[in-house]
Amino acid sequence: MKLARLSLWNRRGTVLMTWLSLTISIALLIGINHLRIEAKTSFTSTVSGTDLIVGARSGQLNLLLYSVFRIGNATANISWPSYQRIIKHPQIAWSIPISLGDSHRGYRVMGTNSDYFTYYRYANNQPLVLRQGQPFASVFDTVLGAEVAQKLGYKLGQQIELSHGVGAVSFSQHKNKPFTVVGILARTGTPVDQTVHVNLEAIEAIHLDLQQGAPKPTQVTREQALAHDLTPKAITAFMLGLTSRMATFTVQRQINEFKTEPLTAILPGVALAELWQMLGMVEGLLLLISLLVLLAALVGMITTLLASMKERQREMAILRAAGAHPWYLFVLIQLEVLLVTLASMLSACVLLFMSLVLLQDKLAADFGLFISLNILNQATLYWAVGILALSSVLATIPGMLAYRNTLADGLTVRL
Amino acid sequence: MTDKPKIPAIELKQLQFYYLANGWQLNVPELSLRVGQHLFVRGASGSGKTTLLNLLCGITKPVSGELYVSGQALHRLSSSARDSLRAKHIGVVFQQLNLIPYLSVLDNTLLSSHFAGQNKADATVRAKVLLQRLGLESTIWHQKAAAISVGQQQRVAIARALLPKPTLLIADEPTSALDSDNRDAFMKVMLAEADSNGCTVIFVSHDQSLAQYFAYQLTMQNLALGVQPC
Questions:
Q1: CA nearest to A316 within chain B
Q2: How many A-B residue pairs are in contact by the CB < 8 A criterion?
Q3: The domain containing residue B45 runs over which residues?
Q4: Are the C-beta atoms of residues A364 and A147 closer than 8 Å to each other?
Q5: Which residue of A has its CA nearest to B83?
Q6: Is the residue at B193 inside a domain?
Q7: Could you tell me if residue B97 is left (phi over 0), alpha (psi between -120 and 50 degrees) or otherwise beta?
Q8: Which of A266, A293, A314 marks a domain boundary?
């Protein structure tokens, strides 16, 4: 081991470059694999127990993305009377209305009602849990997702202001109608953590000042707003829980054929599978590319070793003269390769961890991907074993060369 | 009552080696060396000196014939048994670049004892004594081998070869890179250390002037003559 270590140190220039290329390629491979697994877990655990999601007529992926992942925007709204009519269907057990379109410091605001806290499920039928406080009771109450509260440092009782629109920067603020934080949800690892939840009535109230997106000349105060009829005129989407799973396709068809306005009802599981299938092709391609990059790096390392074998012929002859068996030289080469690979794997893990720390928020905000920092999982372990095995197999080429040369050359060094 | 016959340090009988690639072959009809005997082997390039050394070291195996080192039949031993025998009983010094450049002087010296399976602590103590006897001061023990002079490197090579207390020391033109002063000093030190260990020496060189240090010689071009007085 000492000899392998010192031999590597002696060739530190080339070893450093090999280590660097291996580190990047291993980080790429493990990173893509980690992202793939985490994305799948994150996607599939985002919504659970919901039988149908309904929105304005559009593609099922678009509806899934904006209603569940808070990515993109709805093509149109659903009128409140239509919503009311649909939820009276005898086979609908519960519904959660969703109203989107506003934000707070880059985080999406979702208008809903108290049913959201009762019926919404994520992961394996997990209910939402309030870590602090309670669901909203009055119009200007807000319940924050765990990430929003943590990142913005909000506490119960604090007042926050919402912005019109979902961009990071908004020119239209609802400054005269501040909201009071009454609850903070426990972490779910889903887009819920990044959402500011408010009452549906509050969405109506803050838009009393706006006319077609532009501020009206006269502003309505918070108190004046409360005196208005705040029944929503429209919502963005709604989730449905049915009395029986058997009724899913019947209710879906009926909603899709709804005469009053064009609507789309989707099965979240099917939409998630379709979304994953689309991403799966890209992910498969990325995995293949990263595997090829890793293979290229490993082949590079072996080529460097092969190139160095000529200049190491004397070293091999000295070891043989001192009593080393040719297998010892084979093992020495294997050890050197394994040491470089192991060091590269360790540094790749560090590189990947640091990259995830830096990119975690951006991935969550831009893509709705909640990627865990724990990269040392079973899959990584399998990859690590695979990479070590592959490098060991490739190292047999210079290893056998050392073995055969020392047998053939003995103490002779052919210059 | 008769004395028990002493086992020769080296004994070769009808030894034959054949290079399949070019058809060249080495034949040694008979060769025997007593323990402590010093033999000067001379011969031109391509005369088979290194092949003979490889056979004596057990690195290559003869095609036919018998080869005994300290009574052990090298021609019958397995590859790993020959390696083990070499580590314990045979010391080798090359003509130059004898050391692994990235190892320290001390680590280079300890290499052979490592393969001979000797206790590291004991070997380190003996290595230091040996290095000092060879005129290598403690100030260079932890220096890398590449950092010391060629003359010093050759002395470290002797220390490495003699550390496991071998019965046979093989030197393959170890003086070729040394100037005449260093060459004479090297020869004296090497032979004195070999004598103090009771070690048999086989010294290969094409430099006939070095024959003065030896009592016996073997000419590669005329192996049939066997060992002759110098």
A1: B100
A2: 65
A3: 36-61+89-229
A4: yes
A5: A323
A6: yes
A7: left
A8: A266
